[in-house]
Automatic annotation (TrEMBL):
Pfam families: BPD_transp_1. Its main location: membrane. PROSITE patterns: ABC_TM1. GO terms for biological process: transmembrane transport. The chain crosses the membrane at residues 69-90, 102-124, 130-151, 188-209, 234-255. It comes from Microbispora catharanthi. The keyword Transport applies. The keyword Nucleotide-binding does not apply. PANTHER family: ABC TRANSPORTER PERMEASE PROTEIN MG189-RELATED, ABC TRANSPORTER PERMEASE PROTEIN MG189-RELATED-RELATED. Keywords: Cell membrane, Membrane, Transmembrane, Transmembrane helix, Transport. Residues 65-255 form the ABC transmembrane type-1 domain. GO terms for cellular component: plasma membrane. This is ABC transporter permease subunit. It is found in: Cell membrane.
Amino acid sequence: MKRIALYLALFAGAVVSVAPYLMTLNSAFKEPAQVLTTPAWEPAFPVTLENFAQVWSQYDMAGFLLHSLVYAGAVTAGQVVFSTMAAYAFGRMSFPGRDVLFWGYLATMMVPQIVTLVPLFLIMREFGLIDTYLGLILPTAFGTPYGIFLVRQYFRTIPRDLESAARIDGAGTLTVLVRVLLPLSRPILATLATITFITTWNTLLWPLIVTNGDATRVVTLGISALKGQHSSQYHLILAAAALALLPLIVIFLLFQRHIVRSIALTGLK
């Protein structure tokens, strides 16, 4: 009975979590009149693809999705590379002031993002990076406290005997990182990449501040602008939201196994 109750609770939690996404996808296939006259959970009938065709042809959804892909992909690649190197330095190397520096850097997580927006904008303006991909990418491409902390904690679970054995064989610091630690850390790196990509893809505030043209407009800004211009055409907004949601579903399905392994495994095979 306890197991049945547990599974029922988990099922209820899953339904509550997934229901908004399913209702968005369902409503995106409804005709304009049905969107406002039927409940969101009522199946679309008849099913129509006109909403997707209209939002794709009348608005630059392909461009918005491409801009978001470049933005999120570049930030994710930078986060994985630089967070890994910083995590190795903080977790496996010894140098004066290491722990003080790490915990001081980690304390910046308590600073709200809104506090740093104006200084970041002024820096980007001084370098002439307003309304550019570099202006979008640079503030978060070199690692974040959360990413470094996540990878560092995983590195600390890997036995030091493996690293010592590699050094006895003549491996240097970079070789140990690339050939010993990274192969054992694929689950946590996949988790970091997935979290970073999804977070960056969904970001609205920083792109809103640093971009002002269609050449760099990401999908979140595209949907926001669509809602502002056509506040009553919810069928188009839902179709655009469904298009923006699909890449995230694909990313999660590809990496969900690694996310579970990063929680369940240590670094020792």
